[in-house]
Amino acid sequence: MKKINLTLFSIFLLISICTKAQVIDTLAIQDFETSPATPTLTYTVLAGSATYHTGNSGASNAPANSPLGVDGSRAWGVTTSAASTQFEFANVTIPPGYDSVRIRVRIAAMNLVSIGGGPDALDTIGIQISTNGGSNYYNKLKITGPSGDNGHWPYSATGIAKTTYLPPAVLFMNTGTGLQAQGYSTAEISLPGTETQIRVKIAIRSSSGTDTWLVDNVAVIGEKPVILPVTLKQFTGVRSSSEKVNLAWTVASQMNIKQYEIEYAENGVTFNKVATVDPIASSVNDLQYNYEINNNKSLSYYRIKMIDKDGKFTYSPVITIKGNTADKLMTVFPNPAKNNLQINYSGSSSKIKIIVTDASGKKVLVQEGVLINKLNISKLKPGQYFIKLTDNDKILYSKFIKE
Hints:
The protein is an all-beta fold. It contains no helices and 31 strands. The strands form seven sheets. Strands 1, 3, 4, 7, 11, 14 and 16 form a seven-stranded mixed sheet that branches. Strands 2, 5, 6, 8, 9, 12 and 15 form a seven-stranded mixed sheet that branches. Strands 19, 20, 22, 23 and 24 form a five-stranded antiparallel sheet that branches. A hairpin with a 4-residue loop joins β22 and β23. It starts with 20 loop residues before the first strand and ends with a strand.
C-alpha cells in the first residue's frame, strides 16, 4: 500500500494500543424496563414513591421534547417528594481480577408540567455506598439543582459528577438557572478492584410538582486490563477532494487480528460502521493501510475499531476531517449577534433549508428559500445556537452566539 503524504489538512495521532487496554464488564444493571437488562440489579423502595416514565417530554415542558429515559427508554422519576424517596439496590459480589469498579447512574432534571422551572438548589439526588453488605452506608456524592434554582437538563448534558470511595462526600451544583448545558447527567463513584462487594442506596428530594428527577441505567461496572493484538502507530485523515476523504493507518504489528472497521460520526458522538477492511496477510512490521471514502460534509469524525479473532476490540483515537471546499461555502456574521444574523452562502442550489437549534437540540428557527442571506434572531434567548444548512446532498454546519 502507498503511504499517504500528510498535508496541512491531515490530522496526525500516534498511539500504542497493544500494551494495555481496558475490558469493561457490566456486573449488574437496572434500566427500569418492563423486561430489565441482565445481569439485573434488583432494588427495593424504602421510602416515598416514584413513577415510571417513557417517551419524550412535551413541547411545553423543560427541556422540551427530550427523552425521559436514556435513548428514549423507560426511567424512574421522582416529583414532589420533600421528605425524599429512597431506594436500595441489591448487594453485588465483585469477582476477583478487576483493577477497579465503578458505580454509574444516569440522571436528567426536568419540569414535566410547564415551560421553564425544574429542580432547585434544595432538590437533591444523594448516592450512598456500602462495602459490607449494607450494614454501614457512607454518603459519597450529592447532585442538586443549580444555585439560581429552576434548572433543567437532558441526559445529553455534559456534566459528570465523579468521585471516589474515599471521604469526604462531594457536592455537585451548577450556577445560574434554566437550561444547564453542563448539567450532571452522569454520576460515577470509583472503587479499587480489591473490594469484594458493593451496595448502593439513592435518596431523591423534590420540593414541588415542577421539579422532576429522572434516574436510569444504574450500573456496577468492573474494569480490567487486557493485551490486544494490534499496535497502532498512526491514524491520519486527509480530504483528497471536495467529495472524498482518504484515511490511512499504520500498525507496528498485528497478531490474531480479524478485521478493521471504519466508523463515522457526523456529530462526534454517535458512531456507525461505514466500512470493513480485512488485515494484510504479512509478518512485516509497519503495515500501512489506506481507504478512500465518499464524504462531502463540512465536518466529520472517524475512528478505527480493531477486532481480534476472539472478539476483543479497541478503538483508535478519533480524528476530525474538515471540508476544504465546503467550509468556504458558508459564513455567518456578526458573531455574537443581537437582532439579525447575516449568512453568506456561495452554493448554486435553487433551494436551501436552514435549521437553527439551541443547546438542547430543540429547533428554534427553520427557514427555506432560494436565497437566504439574513436571519431574524431577535426573539431568541441569549446563548449558543447551531446552524444546519442543507443544499441537496450537502450539509453545512456553523454556530453563533445570541447576545
